[in-house]
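Work Package 3 (structural annotation) set out to generate three-dimensional models for the target panel prioritized at the project kickoff. During this period the team completed the workflow that converts sequence records into discrete structure tokens, so that structures can be stored uniformly alongside our sequence database. As a representative example, we reproduce one entry of 370 residues exactly as it appears in the project archive.
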Amino acid sequence: MPGVENVAQAPEGEENASPPHGLSEEAVKEVQTAVGAVVTPESQALAKALGLELYPKGNEPDESGTNSLESLGDLDGDGTPEMALRWTGLSRSASEVSEEAEASQSREEVEPQSPLPVWIVFLLAWDGARWNVTRLMDTTSQFTVQVQPLLGPATRELVVLVSAGATLVPYPVIFQFMNHAAPLLWDSRADESRYQGYGHGKVEFRDENGDGVFELVASGRADPGLLVFPPEGGRGFDARAVYVWAGKAYVPRQTEYSANEDYTLYRFISALHLRDFRRAYALIDPPKFLKTQEPSLEAFRKQIESTWPEFLGDHIFEAKESSQTAPDDFTFELTLENKLYAYHPSFSPDAKHLLTSLERRELSMVNSEL
């Protein structure tokens, strides 16, 4: 069945996600053959040809790993709703693969397991004579399909929101519905994209100006790089970035961060990494941090260079998760030249969260592994 084919790039971690033995192309041909046999705009006939249950608009399929057909509503006003189809050539679901993997671990000889299915996302649209098939993208990650008029009241954009990685970073991939097909409009995962997704986050589209052109708002746990936080813990700080449409892509307009102790630590480490002593100095309570009634930027610089020169190098620090008995413990660590250093900061009690002290202790590498 002819149609427009758009295959978006895979997010990080999905580069080797292609199905084995040409399975992806076989699945596409399977869909095209089944859809090509339907000569009526009736959605139920389409679902029957594919052997699937039809999900109504707004009732998204579950994540059970099965093929599904979802109504997106009548996008072009021709009386026939467009359909989102998620399809894989593997007959086993992700849960079945997981159950088999667990069972195999109890055997003396563990058999190799097949990879999880690569989902192929299709748009099916009735063009008056047949169902047009658009292959939108392939993915092994969780995803949802949304329809919104992002670029004006008269437009209809399909947003495939992919949640990738262990922390389910959301990546929007946008297609523009036109002429019973949906060519790719913008992929937030592309190399040239300026989009930054956040772990355990969300993506929203808002018409802030009331002109029908939606802004993209991404929020979630920030990934600062120089200071690594436990992925499933409570440490860290949140970010909220607003993107505006610039003709061919969403570009960042502003980014805000939640003000807390961890955000102060990140900015302090980042400033010293860049040898920006003035910016780092603004993040401390000088008399308390330097333990003098006559603090100065020069005294601060000398103390960093003589006491904590590692902050000026190219090092990655690791935040340790606070315990329930010590929720205000903002310890972070650094492994350097076979030594493990633990840093214990203190902060001012006000909303500025200025550093009032920083103690460094050398830990035993043996004890740290116990």
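The longest helix spans residues 23-36.
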